[in-house]
């Protein structure tokens, strides 16, 4: 039962069969009824004709014997007809023989001019009865019956044939329905097969979008799009894991090497102290990478919820310039623009803008210039960090906010600064962009002044 | 000063105890919440360092029970999960400060000293170490009687050192106290700042007062 309910093919085939059976059965019942009625009409016509004939002969003849002779002649060649005429003094005409006629007369005492079906000596008859005023002054009752076995046989045969036809039609439509549905659902099987072939290692699988029926095209397109998204994020995830492993391996390798080498022979206290201090630096690096990765992972899952405090951007930038300015002794570092407050998380915004500033300081050649411009529109505030120097290569613009992207190999950063900056800005409902200018690189952060909530 | 540590992780607990003992504190270490409860109620400690994830009675329950019993010693809790809810919960339950693992030991030491000092000592208005003197109210620094010009931040940095002589100050602690930079960035801003401060107060004088502890931070003391 549950399997039937689950199979569209079976259900459709059964529905087709049922429909065909119903239509055929209705048609059969209708035809059989009209055939029946038609036969009855023919019989009635004939029987009433015989009755009329009996009355005509009865009126014109003057003796019972003459009536019998003449009426008997008229009935010659009529097979399956029984006629009984009962006068006041007893029956005076029987056709084809007295036995049948008497049996009929007994069975049909109540029959009038409306044909009735009755059984006489095991056979089906249709009979009419009436009064006959004879020419010799006697009043008699005439009963005319017709054997209708060949009619009923015919009708029975017709019905049997019909039921067979109904059965055949139902079977045929079921089979045809099954085939048609199965064929119609072939693309669904193709989708299922394709889905079956997909695994982590084979996300490149796609279902051909042509020669799919229009009803399923939408499904196939959506399915393929889903695969595309899965493939992309899976790729990103595995790239990320590989990157992470690589990033963690470097400090761990350093730790292991220096510890092994140091332990290989006895050393002075100072050397051991040096080793431990160096290890501490590597541990710090590891902690920082892990902390940053955690932050990014949380941000990616929307778990970083910035506060809604009013953060004065200029004041924040001022402090950042003061702090990081110490790293930029040979550079000119300028802040411009009026104070503007945005709703957000001070610590996070500090971190985002700070990362941009550090990035700019690292990529500005000596005696270069870095500017921070704050601007506000009715809805948005923007912070533009521009540093002089060779602009970033065009092919790096698309990936610069990705994790572990380092443009200058000599720069000892984690490669996460810009990724973190972007995730913070995005968590604030803003956007971040990078532009290559003439001998300068420009990062623009745009943050809504009021958060959506 | 007597400190109680409740920490179930063996190595962490042992090294915390060793580190704090060597920093001059009397330290008791217990490894589960129930012992922590017993010690915390009757041990007469001045500070509790509490790991949140404990077998049996967890850190939150312990903290709640201690506060309910009327023990108001300062509590510093340690958590491995950097979840805002954790922090909020701890502070709501009456903890005074928290640290997220992994943390620098010098950071822990600085927090411990701050908590123990809180509300106890009125901040001094003049600070001195060797021949270095700082008048906090007049914003004036002198060494060997010579006036030294300092920027506001250099002054704040020097004041921080002088208020914590002999304490190792980590770079992130210094960044947070002097510049209010509360995220850990891997830049050497603090190094640069220390170098400049040294140039003004140390380079031309003896003895040198600011010392670098590689990998840990800086300390100001007479060696």
How would you describe this structure in keywords?
heterodimer, A: 453 residues, alpha+beta, Beta-Lactamase, Helix Hairpins, Heat Shock Protein 90, 12 strands, 19% strand, B: 223 residues, alpha/beta, Rossmann fold, Arc Repressor Mutant, subunit A, five-stranded parallel β-sheet, four-stranded antiparallel β-sheet, 21% strand, elongated
Q: What is the count of helical runs of chain B?
A: 8
> Uncertain segments of chain A of ≥5 residues (pLDDT<50)?
none
For the record, what is the CATH homologous superfamily label of the largest domain in chain B? Response regulator
- Average predicted local confidence, pLDDT of chain A: 85
Tally of individual domains of chain B: 2
In CATH, the homologous superfamily of the largest domain in chain A goes by the name PAS domain
When the domains of chain A are counted, the total is: 3
Given helix and strand content, the structural type of chain A is alpha+beta
Please tell me how large the radius of gyration of chain B is: 19 Å
SSE string of chain B = EHEHEHEHEHEEEEHHHEE
CATH class of the largest domain in chain A: Alpha Beta
The tally of strands of chain B reads 11
> What is the general shape of chain A?
rod-shaped
CATH architecture group name of the largest domain in chain A: 2-Layer Sandwich
- By oligomeric state, this entry counts as heterodimer
- Beta-strand content bin of chain A: 15-25%
Mean pLDDT of chain B: 87
Distance between the termini of chain B: 25 Å
Strand order of the largest sheet of chain B: 2-1-3-4-5
